[in-house]
Structures are given as structure tokens and as C-alpha cells.
Amino acid sequence: MLDKVKELIGDVSAFNATTKDEIEAFRIKFLSKKGILNDLFAEFKNVAPAERKEFGQVLNTLKNAAQDKVNQLKDALENASEQKGIYGDLTRPEEPIELGSRHPISIVRNKIIDVFSRIGFTVSEGPEIEDDWHNFTALNLPEYHPARDMQDTFFIETNPDILLRTHTSSVQVRYMENHKPPIRTISPGRVFRNEDISARAHCIFHQVEGLYIDTDVSFADLKQTLLYFTKEMFGKSKIRLRPSYFPFTEPSAEVDIYWGLETETDYKITKGTGWLEIMGCGMVDPNVLKNANIDPEIYSGYAFGMGIERIAMLLYQIPDIRMFYENDVRFLEQFKSVI
Ligand code: DAH
């Protein structure tokens, strides 16, 4: 009997529990009315008188050990739940919030806006779903004009008058219809063309259109503005204007900047010439002014248009235009430090 009680003392001291239920089961087993201890105390009368003293002492030891064990386990459980709890440790510093990064298209667009807003240009926007008038006709591209073919257009099937704008030049027309000169505005936005997707071309891309209308605006003003822009945007101050054709400007030009031939990439992107085309521009055609109810006898102006993807590809050496639209975080995270 004595040995049995001593064994139980060993069991009690070795016992461990991590849940309330386990502790309660232990308490019931040893300390409840029908528990082991009460049973043992009931045995008292059957113990030989000479052994009763020792038996009593050992029983008391078992009882105290069981009681201590229950208290100790309950305390431990309470401490643990205070620390972890459902809220965790409220005194600990917060997990750092993962900061996202701006998309390279947004970074470049913001930079362009910043450069032009410093010389008084406002930002204007127009709809992506456009009508024929604003995208083509008012821009001196009447129906059947061959230049319409240059811009593979997505039309709305049920209404050939409605289309996805092929360029942000449509915003020029809308802006002139609603504002009186002097006008200085740039219009960034998304444009759509029915083109095969490749490393160089996509059916959705972004442009920034610029428009300046006032009295006595000359080609020299245009050239000076372009020079300022390329200096601020790329840190390069050598440009050249190549005669070109756009229906909405006369004369028209394409703008090249001298990128240089310092690295192998420079050779590659400039095809060994050092020169790189970055935008189209020209003096607003008098017909376009007329179409927007601005008198070409009083006012003149210049316009320009550039592709944002192309500039971002240049600035960040991005080899494939499709990377802009894949939303691969390994690509996007690389722009974290750029703002
Ligand atoms: N709209 C032309 C395009 O999408 C770009 C452009 C060229 C805009 C010359 C202009 C301009 O305003 O003057 O290719």
C-alpha cells in the first residue's frame, strides 16, 4: 500500500498538462470526492496501526503534491495565454507594413508631368472610348484619308463611329473645344491599337500629348520647349528634328535625341547611330484649329506626342514592352527605390 502511494507521488510530480481540460481531469482523478485520495483515506482503517503514522504522512504528501501540481499548471496556463492570447503580445512593435512600389509607367508619366508643369502646362484627360470626330476627323483625318491606316483601330462593332482612341491627340481637340487660348496642356493616357503583340509593340500602351496655343507661337518656341524637356527628362541636351508627316501638324517633325555611344547597350538601342527617336511634333494645322473653333488667323500653336513605354524602356533599360503588363512582382519591385 505504502509503495503504491509513493508511486503515485512520482506520477503526480511527473505529470504535465497544457490545457484546462487536462488539468481538470487530473484534479478530478486525484482530489475530487470520488478521487484517488479520498479512496486512499478510506483505506486508512485497514492499515496496520504501526504503519498508520507513516501512511498518513505519505498520503498528506500525495495530497499536497496533487494540489500544488494543479495550482502550478493553472498558473502556467494563465501566464501563457496572457502572453500569446488571441491578440498576441500587445507591447511588441507592429509587424512592418510591406510598401508597394509605383509602376514604371506611372513613374515616367509623373516625371513628364513634373517637367512640363514647371513651365506652366496643366494636365488634361479625355475618354478612352472616343468618337470618330475627336480621334480622326477633327485632327484633319477625314474618312478615307490614307493616314488612318497608320493607326490600326479597334472599332465598336455595332457603331463604326465609336472606337478605342488610337492616340491622345483626341484630347487636344476636346481641350480646344472647351478652353480659350492661351492653352498649355499635356494629356497623359492609355491608347489602343490593333497590333500584334511583340517585344516592341503592344495593343495597349500610353502616350503623353502636349498642346500649346497662343498668339505668335512659332516653331522656335516648340524647339526650345523640346530642348528643355529632353534636358530635364534625360539629362541630354542635343536634339535634332527630322521632317516628317502628321495630318494634324504642318510642318511636322520627329524628334531624336543624341543618346551617345558609350556602352554596348547604347549601340544596340541606337542601332549604332547614337541617335534615338522619342516623339513626334509640329505646328498645329490651321484646319485643326478651325475644327475646334479657334481662329487660325489670330492663333497658332504647337503640339507633340510621345509614348511613355518607349521612354520608360530607355530610362530603365527594359528589353520587352510586355513586361509592363505582366504584373510580375520581381519586375515591379525593382522600381521601389525610384519613387
Ligand atoms: N498622335 C501621334 C501618334 O500617335 C503622335 C503625335 C505626333 C502627336 C505629332 C502630336 C504631334 O501632337 O504633333 O503617333
UniProtKB/TrEMBL annotation:
Signal peptide: none annotated. It catalyses: tRNA(Phe) + L-phenylalanine + ATP = L-phenylalanyl-tRNA(Phe) + AMP + diphosphate + H(+). Transmembrane segments: none annotated. GO terms for cellular component: cytoplasm. Pfam families: Phe_tRNA-synt_N, tRNA-synt_2d. Its EC number is 6.1.1.20. It is an enzyme of class 6 (ligase). Keywords: Aminoacyl-tRNA synthetase, ATP-binding, Cytoplasm, Ligase, Magnesium, Metal-binding, Nucleotide-binding, Protein biosynthesis. Mg(2+) binds at residue 250. One of its GO terms (biological process) is phenylalanyl-tRNA aminoacylation. It is found in: Cytoplasm. The keyword Ribosomal protein does not apply. Residues 108-326 form the Aminoacyl-transfer RNA synthetases class-II family profile domain. GO terms for molecular function: ATP binding; magnesium ion binding; phenylalanine-tRNA ligase activity; tRNA binding. Its cofactor is Mg(2+). Binds 2 magnesium ions per tetramer. CDD domains: PheRS_alpha_core. Tetramer of two alpha and two beta subunits. Belongs to the class-II aminoacyl-tRNA synthetase family. Phe-tRNA synthetase alpha subunit type 1 subfamily. HAMAP family: Phe_tRNA_synth_alpha1. This is Phenylalanine--tRNA ligase alpha subunit.
